[in-house]
Amino acid sequence: MRLIRPLVLAIALMATAAPAYADFTFIIGSNTTPSKRTVKGFAFGSGGAIATEFEYANNGQDLDESLPGLRTFMGNVLIQTPFYVAGFQPYATAGLGYYRERLEPLEESGLGFNTGVGIKRTVFGPLKVRFDYRIFKLRGDPLYSTVHRIYTGVHLAF
Q1: Domains in the chain: how many in total?
Q2: CATH code at position 121
Q3: What's the average model confidence in pLDDT over 99-125?
Q4: Structure pTM?
């Protein structure tokens, strides 16, 4: 009985979701581990209340400060409200993919996982802004196995 209510709620949310669409997001933000460094990338995806996306992000290494560069290639699932709450569309995301951490001459790559939360806000028409916070868990032997990232993006739905 405890599982029936959440199941009915999930079905109702999916039934009222907007039809599937595609979107593209340009990303700029900051990897904050071990210190703030600019990260740039993009994401593209599709879906409604339950959506999928592919995301690429990169920040270069800083040899003077001994800070590694990190590239991530992630496939994510987003669960988002099919309606706006106080003008914002909140979402939660989780995904997995591949990463490469590099600090000359060291290099490590492997499987990575991420979880996060964010919001989208419509500017006008199909143009939105997106704010996102993610935690990455990197497997293998990277210099930093947990990485925090904050970013904003220009999000175009079509």
Answers
A1: 1
A2: 2.40.160.20
A3: 95
A4: 0.83
